[in-house]
Amino acid sequence: MSWTVVADLAAAVCILLGALLALVAAIGVVRMPDLLSRMHAATKPQVLGTVLVMTGVALRLREPGVVGVLVLIVLLQMATSVVSSHMVGRASFRAGQVRRDLLVVDELSDGPAHEEPRGAP
Amino acid sequence: MSPVMRTRRDGSTRPARHRAVQPLAVAWLLVVWLALWGDVTPMLLVGGVLVAVLVCLTFPLPPIDLGSSVRVLPLLGVVARFHLDVVRASVQVAGVVLRRRPVRNAVVAVDLETTSDFLMTLVASMLSLIPGSVVVEARRSTHTLYLHVLDVPDAAAAEEFRRTALALEQRLLRALPPRPTAPEAR
């Protein structure tokens, strides 16, 4: 068995696993009870899914130019998903869109009122 | 870190201007530009530098002050452990999604040891990329991160998560030990 066959097999496995994770993320968005839990399902398994699909594509195409673009896609995906999940989570918490009955501990609302000093973001 | 202040001639102070065009940012944008074209020609290089400078001038950002030295081996350890965590936690979240039981969550406060903005950002991003936790609020004045954690059955599990988050910070502090002359000392 030549190495191209092995690489193709590995690519197929990677793409399948990645697609499976994307499916789980989609199911999570439907099934989770509130917005913050949905954010977990929507942003995280999907990042690993993207990484796996990109690895599969790189293994199948085997071109250096393409690999550069794929690495760029993964880096940008990681950078943007962090910021977007934080912004959506923070906005929903401040707007009170949280199922408090699902929270075991809530140290943000239960803590003493805190006035952020001027100049802080 | 509050902005560096400059004193005006009349004695009042204003935040110091920083140079908008930073060499590192231009280099990174050039790499992205070349990767998107998928080719390196003199024309693309010149065009890339021009576009990068234009982007830096249009969207100026403050320079990143690393404020710590870099130890390569522990840093590689942090990166390896991070990948392991991402894979393990992805499987865990997938399990939570697929099982029948309703999920219980928690909002946990993590008081970081570091006072550096850069390290706080790094810890927050890494914790956010590991499935199962999202930063819902960050307090810069007290260096506290508030994280929403998925699948926390009781208070002991919340405590457990706080320990893992602080352990991640400790690993990062070992990999990027702060320089003795901290910029906060100004």
Automatic annotation (TrEMBL), chain A:
Q: What's the superkingdom here?
A: Bacteria
InterPro entries per the record?
PhaG_MnhG_YufB
Q: Which Pfam family, giving just one, matches this sequence?
A: PhaG_MnhG_YufB
Q: Which UniProt keywords apply?
A: Membrane, Transmembrane, Transmembrane helix
| Transmembrane annotation, as ranges | 6-30, 67-89
Record-linked NCBIfam families: CPA3_mnhG_phaG (TIGR01300), PRK12674.1-2 (NF009314)
Family the UniProt entry places it in: Belongs to the CPA3 antiporters (TC 2.A.63) subunit G family.
PANTHER family attached here? ANTIPORTER SUBUNIT MNHG2-RELATED
What protein does this entry describe?
Answer: Monovalent cation/H(+) antiporter subunit G
> What's the gene?
mnhG
From TrEMBL, chain B:
Q: Where in the cell is it found?
A: Cell membrane
Give the record's membrane topology.
Answer: Multi-pass membrane protein
The transmembrane residues are: 20-37, 43-61, 118-136
- Give the domain of life: Bacteria
- InterPro entries noted in UniProt: Cation_antiport_E (IPR002758)
Keyword set, alphabetical order: Cell membrane, Membrane, Transmembrane, Transmembrane helix
| Family, similarity comment | Belongs to the CPA3 antiporters (TC 2.A.63) subunit E family.
Q: What is this protein called?
A: Na+/H+ antiporter subunit E
